[in-house]
Amino acid sequence: AWRQGLRGIVAGAAVTFLLLSYQGELLALRARRPVADRAMVETAERIRASTVPEAVINTWWSSGYVYSALAGRGVVLDGGSLAQERIYWYSRALTATDEGEALSLLRWIDCGVEGYLLDLLSRHATRAEAAFTMAELARVPTPRERHAFLRRKGYSSANVKAIGETLACRPAQAWMVLSSDLLGQTAAWARYGLWTPADGPLPPPSASVTQPLACSLVPGGFTCANGRTVDILRDGWRDFTTPGHLAAMGPAEDGWRPVVHQVRDLLALTYVREEIADSLFARLYFFRGSGLPRLQLMSDIRYPPFTRRVLSYRIEWPETSEGSAATKELR
Question: pTM for the full model?
Answer without folding.
Answer: 0.84
